[in-house]
Amino acid sequence: MSDASAAFPKPSPSDRCPCLSGEVFGACCGRFLGGAADAPTAEQLMRSRYSAFVVGDSAYLLATWHPSTRPSELELDPAMRWFRLDVVRRERGGPLDRDGIVEFTAYYRHDGKRGEQHEASAFVREGGRWSYVGPVS
Which of 11, 40, 57, 134 is the most exposed place for a label (fewest CB within 10 A)? Predict the structure, then answer.
């Protein structure tokens, strides 16, 4: 979690993973955020990116964003608290696929109000690594 400030939660490896996979953070998204492994599927990359938003790891988000759509910088708001992720649909995105789509709804609280972000995200696998491209239009 390279740039996470004290304002962001810092789960321990034995805490439940923020992506709600049912695994502990160290065995799930923590290994991807820590650089120990690359996400083998588009869904796992999307889940790890969600966890990166939770813990404030903008460096991981930028590193996993496809160069064709990646912003030059990303500033995360520590007042934005992400608390639930629901994966709605997956298309392709397996270990042998070249592309995939993962549709999700992520729930947050900001300034005392609840909200949600619903997106169908496009991913590509190049050189054996998955990257987030952006929302499917």
Answer: 134
